[in-house]
Amino acid sequence: MLWLDPYPTRFPKLSDFRRLGVQPSQENCNNPPWLSVIRPAALPIEPLPGAVFVNALLWRSVLQTIEVFARQNTCHLVVGKPSVLALIVLKRLKMARSIYDAMDDFSAFYTGFSRWAMRRREEQLVRSVGGVLASSMAIHQRWSDIRADIQLVHNGLDADVLPELSRSVAARERKVLGYVGTIATWFDWDWVIALAKARPTDVVRLIGPVRAPTPVWLPKNIERLPSCSHQDALHAMQGFDVGLIPFKRNDLTASVDPIKYYEYRALGLPVISTDFGEMSFHGGEEGVFLSRGVHDVRGMVQSAIRYRAKIESVQKFIAENTWEARFAAAKII
Fold it and tell me: Low-confidence residues of the chain, pLDDT below 70?
């Protein structure tokens, strides 16, 4: 596998300038032997007309590496993020089987001209690839107007990395209501604060990087921990009594099918989620408690804590939601 790291596809932010001057280079020190990683250098000017001619100068060696790889292997091209570079590679590898793995409404992350440019670029991509996989109903509906062969393929989980099922923590008095993931603009702090106030003797444990301003004041029972490896995150989830997915309901989250939902349930955890995106369709499933707002937080927690997952149900859920099961059902793979 040859993996190309994403690069800035909007107008610049301060953090983008750290990437300037980085030459295309393979970063394979900790990768398995079948995986090569390339980081393309790029100026954060992609929405500008004519920007392709500037960045294309930085991509010459990248494109050469891709073409050599394609000649030496049976090539399948999978695009995970719309970009000018992705469109260029599609044109150069016309004979390769190509798929767009649509996992987000990327334009919703941007504003102004960057949003318009991303929307246009993504539409070009959808029209150009051999097939499209949509990870949520919202994404499926969005692109079904352009082509009729969009396939709905939800997110899933890797059963091989799951730790052993262990729910011994369920008997303790002080419950841990936990979240693992990025804390950004879509994170619903009002809901989390309401939860912490409703359960003052419990711990609300938040694990992950913070990418947006947080409230100045937080209840003392909200515990914030830094990001960690995926394996450590899974073990941390085993210390939860309830798994939380507290996202706002907006254009950005309307297309989201969170992987953490599948991992929480694969570990036998009850899940409390706000009502957004694909989680709206999971509300009637076993062990899933869908909150409509801060007014129902207290009752949701009480119901979730009483829930006990049966090991047979968890094993069935894992078997039905592995990546292998997902892609075995996908007709274009």
Answer: 13-29, 166-171, 332-333
